[in-house]
């Protein structure tokens, strides 16, 4: 990876608690490069207007930028058409939309919804709620001991009663990359639809929704160097067409009568209110930035970072790393615990050394239960991290260990 | 690497409470039994109190969490044991002021609790320190209602 990439991220050029910042929390949210910040600034300074309604020039410019962003996303994930790209607030909103719209219309009493033990709360609770409402059964695919998913267990969980399978592509805790393409095939054999939570995948891997043959795919802009508040739901056109909106008013309407109304066509019927225009503009700039570097290059860099981090971190006595040991099976996420030091205390000590990591349950409490821990610390790497960041982390961890053995 | 600022947070007496917690476990005879979580980080505390005639006769806690949350729970049980409910709630108010970095009533002897003062400089950790006190407050109020 080009060492100059760091210089595109102004936020990284600062000291935290007297030390140069090492940002290792990109799985929570990524930092933003100058071109994305500039794109937002330019949009607000030159083009800001509401879309699809103004006759005036600014309205046209804003609309062109907004719809241009949709084309960008369509190419980015290789969707067949822009009608399959819905702009929403983020992955959580996208999954909730599918659960509330597709789910309510298609899941009946006794039907099954299948997820896994490694899901983020955002890919658990929408299905829990749906299952409770419909009297459906929520099933969890068992994990292997190393935190991977075997197709055998997938086949054991999916039956002809299964209506929806929803699975994370890359785990935000274990870093595991799941075989979503193969799972989609199994789901389809049983007449179920496949939803993919791509929040941790889209920033790091080349996504091809046609190749994966998933029915729904959700991701968030802010985890891929884009702004917060913009996300994408991809859905196969025939599925989205049959689905009812869950938000009414604003952008999504076609004709409004006193007692009845009709909706716009795809994808706008799902985009109630004033759309997330600036967010979409920022997302398009983010995609440009990532594509210029190359998603393949980014993926390679992350495997490399995971491999080096795991190697150097395992040399620390009493440090346990969760998830697959094989770096090729995981993205740049390393979740760990230091023996006898609680992850919050680890994170505070690291913060005092200018190193930002996440500590807690990572919005994955069922997975924490499966791991038999209450909390963990997590270092997550992105394109702007390099080996010197890993060295700083390892040094910080050694200090934390030392500090806590001293105070005891 | 030196961590002078960390020493404000991890005072010796805090580490002592973390390592050898006082009043750990659950009371067999309790009038208050309350569980509370810190949803952002997964810390969990179970607090049992025996309140009789407006006096906290006994207090025990169990749970999982970081050094600050567990030490604070240990100190809290130590502080409220034997006190009347009003005093326990007053201490809780003083502790809350201390955490928010406000002026607090120092006419009351706070004992070990005073050591947690440094937490107020670490905003991300304030919730860790207040968890046990919140559980106590809620428990006492629930008891009063019933």
Automatic annotation (TrEMBL), chain B:
Gene Ontology biological-process entries: iron-sulfur cluster assembly
GO molecular function: iron ion binding; iron-sulfur cluster binding
Domain NIF system FeS cluster assembly NifU N-terminal as annotated: residue spans: 10-128
Cross-referenced InterPro entries: NIF_FeS_clus_asmbl_NifU_N
Family: Belongs to the NifU family.
Protein name per UniProt: Nitrogen fixation NifU-like protein
Taxonomic lineage from the root: Bacteria, Bacillati, Bacillota, Bacilli, Bacillales
């Amino acid at each position: 990876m080009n060492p100059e990439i760091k210089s595109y991220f102004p936020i990284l050029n600062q000291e935290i608690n007297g030390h140069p910042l090492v940002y290792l929390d990109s799985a929570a949210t990524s930092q933003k490069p100058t071109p994305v910040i500039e794109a937002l600034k330019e949009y607000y300074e030159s083009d800001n207007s509401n879309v699809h309604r103004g006759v005036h020039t600014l309205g046209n410019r804003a609309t062109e930028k907004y719809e241009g962003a949709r084309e960008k996303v369509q190419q980015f994930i290789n969707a067949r058409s822009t009608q399959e790209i819905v702009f929403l607030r983020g992955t959580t909103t996208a999954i909730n939309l599918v659960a509330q719209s597709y789910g309510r219309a298609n899941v009946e009493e006794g039907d099954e919804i299948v997820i896994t033990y490694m899901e983020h709360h955002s890919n658990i609770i929408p299905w829990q709620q749906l299952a409770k409402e419909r009297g459906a059964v929520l099933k969890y695919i068992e994990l292997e001991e190393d935190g991977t998913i075997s197709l055998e267990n997938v086949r054991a969980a999916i039956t002809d009663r299964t209506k929806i399978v929803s699975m994370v592509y890359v785990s935000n805790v274990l870093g595991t990359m799941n075989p979503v393409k193969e799972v989609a095939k199994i789901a389809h054999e049983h007449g179920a639809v496949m939803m993919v939570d791509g929040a941790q995948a889209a920033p790091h891997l080349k996504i091809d929704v046609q190749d994966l043959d998933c029915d729904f795919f959700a991701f968030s802009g802010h985890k891929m160097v884009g702004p917060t508040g913009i996300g994408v739901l991809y859905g196969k056109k025939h599925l989205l067409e049959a689905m009812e909106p869950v938000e009414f008013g604003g952008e999504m309407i076609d004709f409004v009568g006193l007692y009845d109304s009709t909706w716009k066509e795809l994808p706008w019927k799902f985009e109630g209110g004033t759309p997330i225009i600036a967010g979409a503009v920022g997302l398009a700039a983010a995609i440009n930035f990532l594509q210029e570097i190359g998603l393949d290059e980014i993926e390679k860099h992350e495997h490399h970072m995971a491999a080096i981090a795991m190697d150097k971190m395992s040399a620390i006595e009493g440090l346990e790393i969760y998830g697959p040991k094989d770096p090729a099976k995981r993205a740049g996420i390393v979740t760990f615990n230091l023996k006898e030091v609680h992850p919050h205390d680890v994170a505070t000590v690291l913060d005092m050394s200018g190193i930002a990591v996440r500590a807690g349950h990572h919005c994955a409490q069922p997975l924490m239960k499966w791991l038999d821990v209450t909390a963990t610390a997590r270092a997550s790497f992105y394109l702007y991290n390099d080996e010197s960041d890993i060295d700083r982390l390892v040094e910080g961890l050694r200090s934390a260990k030392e500090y806590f053995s001293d105070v005891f | 690497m030196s961590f002078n600022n960390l020493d404000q947070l991890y005072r010796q007496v805090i580490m002592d409470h973390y390592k050898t917690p006082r009043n750990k476990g659950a009371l067999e005879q309790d009038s208050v039994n309350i569980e509370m979580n810190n949803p952002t980080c997964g810390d969990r505390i179970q607090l049992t109190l025996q309140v009789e005639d407006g006096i906290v006769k006994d207090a025990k806690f169990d749970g999982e969490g970081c050094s600050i949350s567990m030490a604070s729970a240990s100190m809290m049980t130590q502080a409220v044991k034997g006190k009347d409910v009003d005093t326990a709630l007053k201490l809780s108010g003083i502790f809350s002021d201390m955490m928010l970095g406000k002026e607090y009533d120092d006419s009351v002897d706070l004992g070990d609790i005073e050591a947690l003062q440094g937490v107020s400089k670490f905003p991300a950790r304030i919730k860790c320190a207040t968890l046990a006190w919140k559980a106590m407050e809620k428990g006492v109020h629930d008891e009063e209602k019933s």
